[in-house]
Amino acid sequence: MQGGIRAFVSHGSIVKNAVLQHARLISPLKPIMMSRHESTAAARIEEQGFESTKISDVLKAKGKGADGSWLWCTIDDSVYDAVKSMTQHNVGALVVVKPGEKSSIAGIITERDYLRKIIVQGRSSKSTKVGDIMTEENKLITVTPDTKVLKAMQLMTDNRIRHIPVIDEKGMQGMVSIGDVVRAVVSEHREELNRLNAFIQGGY
């Protein structure tokens, strides 16, 4: 999975460079200098181009913003209840907060934590608290709503994580998964290719 994502990012860069070069080709029948209209259109293409999608765009698409709709549990919840919540909502991780402090993140608990620290070690999920097995806040890798999607993907692949909390000066804003990020990148590349195609055909 990780190797495939790196290959995808690398392929995306190749596609980006190839298509932009194609868009800038000048017909031998045209003057060497681009017209003012053409140069302005090309600049607009690049401004709207690849790598423009932010994590805030992903959160909006998910419908999980600062209104608290992102899934969470507390450090005092049992691991059993946390895993049950993950299963019910079809997610692989939960944000962990202290009781009564939803805006302040204490850590994150993932399916991997459950497998490695409960199942493999033969511990009881009903008697073990989330706070005992979670990844603590000071060890978390996080992004902000303004982080570019490709930067988030790079952080996730480099650190071999599948979920990353989104935090800003106001506190916890949500969480995105590697699946969310990949879908956003694919969508961005598709839209960019459509824009460049329209530019080449004179749509700009």
Automatic annotation (TrEMBL):
Domain CBS: 66-125, 134-192
Protein's UniProt keywords contain Nucleus: no
Key words of the record: CBS domain
SMART domains given in the database record: CBS (SM00116)
A Pfam family this chain is assigned to: CBS
UniProt xrefs under CDD domains: CBS_pair_bac_euk
Keyword Membrane listed: no
Database matches in PANTHER family: CBS DOMAIN-CONTAINING PROTEIN (PTHR43080:SF2), CBS DOMAIN-CONTAINING PROTEIN CBSX3, MITOCHONDRIAL (PTHR43080)
Protein's name in the database: CBS domain-containing protein
Organism field: Mikania micrantha
